[in-house]
Specification:
Layout: H1 3-12, H2 18-21, H3 23-38, E1 45-49, H4 59-65, E2 68-73, H5 76-80, H6 83-86, H7 90-94, E3 96-100, H8 115-120, H9 125-136, E4 150-155, H10 164-176, H11 181-209, E5 210-224, H12 228-235, H13 239-253, H14 257-268, E6 270-282, E7 285-295
Parallel strand pairs: 1-2, 1-4, 2-3, 4-5
Antiparallel strand pairs: 5-7, 6-7
The protein binds S-adenosylmethionine.
């Protein structure tokens, strides 16, 4: 099993009753998706990216409207065990294909193989740069889901999960054993720079497999549900109000991973519209998600 696969299986494995807690969020996403679906000229194929446990969207809705649905993720066991997948009839399941995909291509060069141990033996910037350069490898031409072209592609929130969390975990393990803070900062900065390229390759793949509408959900803010920040956002959740909080945040702190992915996408494909949603991600902590709708 690859490192990226085992990392994500671990994240997807939770006893927490997310399915129930996410009902309202899922309904909000579903009604936005339905508006897009009903406006399509053709509904032959839908592709879901980052399907996981299929809990942030209704699989049934996709199955009802499309002739075929592709559910993709690196963790396909989560899809097969998903509540919505198990509830499908035999006929519906026959129209759903589960495809195992790794979206970044960096695993091919063995980036994460024994990474903590390999870095811990290095004590200078040059050696670390060489290791990371080799580790990320040549992913620039990486293509996934090569043979597909979909009327609609839905991307579950994923930018913030693509590699970066895994790299941060490596850094935090190294930090806990007293590894040089300067070198860790270097690794973190190097990873952020590389992530821009990873997102660009990922986005290019999204565009290539879309032949209609691309709908991308991305988590932009996260905070405690009862924090002053979240209370301010929830008090007036109109688009204008969230936009202005977001613009202020952007000025103060710059891009996060979630909006960087969308920003890069905006540069190359036509953005039709976007909406904000609140995602009660875990008990006591919420995310604010941007749902961006693109036209190809
Ligand atoms: C935050 S989840 C999205 C929520 C998901 N739709 C659900 O309901 O469980 C992101 C998904 O992306 C998958 N993922 C993360 N990194 C990946 C990668 N590099 N390649 C393929 N899938 C990846 C994870 O396995 C996870 O299922």
């Amino acid at each position: 099993m690859s490192n990226i696969e085992s990392f994500n299986i671990l994240l997807n494995t939770t006893k927490d009753d997310r399915y129930q807690r996410w009902v309202e969020f899922r309904e909000g996403i579903d009604s936005s998706l339905l508006r897009v679906i009903t406006g399509l000229e053709s509904r032959k194929l839908a592709i879901i990216i980052g399907a996981g446990r299929c809990e942030d969207f209704s699989l049934k809705q996709f199955v009802n409207y499309f002739e075929r649905v592709i559910l993709s993720d690196i963790d396909v066991e989560s899809i097969f065990n998903a509540h919505d997948y198990l509830m499908l009839t035999k006929e519906e399941k026959a129209r759903v294909e589960v495809v195992k995909v790794e979206y970044t291509g960096v695993e091919n060069s063995g980036l994460f193989d024994d990474l903590v141990n390999r870095i811990s033996k290095l004590d200078n910037f040059d050696d670390i740069e060489e290791l990371l350069l080799k580790g990320f490898g040549d992913f620039k031409n990486y293509k996934f889901l090569k043979k597909y072209s979909a009327d609609m592609v839905y991307v579950s929130p994923i930018y913030t999960q693509l590699i970066y969390q895994q790299l941060l975990m490596v850094c935090s393990k190294l930090r806990s054993v007293g590894y040089s803070e300067n070198l860790l900062k270097y690794i973190e900065n190097y990873s952020v720079d590389k992530l821009v390229e990873v997102f660009e390759v990922f986005n290019k793949n999204l565009e290539r497999i879309t032949n209609g509408r691309l709908v991308v959900a991305s988590d932009i803010f996260q905070d405690y549900s009862n924090s002053d920040f979240m209370k301010r956002i929830k008090k007036d959740f109109s688009k204008g109000s969230v936009d202005s909080i977001y613009n202020q945040y952007l000025e103060d702190y710059g891009f996060g991973m979630g909006d960087l992915g969308l920003y890069l996408l905006n540069e190359s494909i036509e953005l039709l519209d976007y909406e904000w949603h609140i995602w009660p991600f875990v008990e006591g902590s919420d995310m604010v998600v941007k749902l961006a709708i693109y036209k190809k």
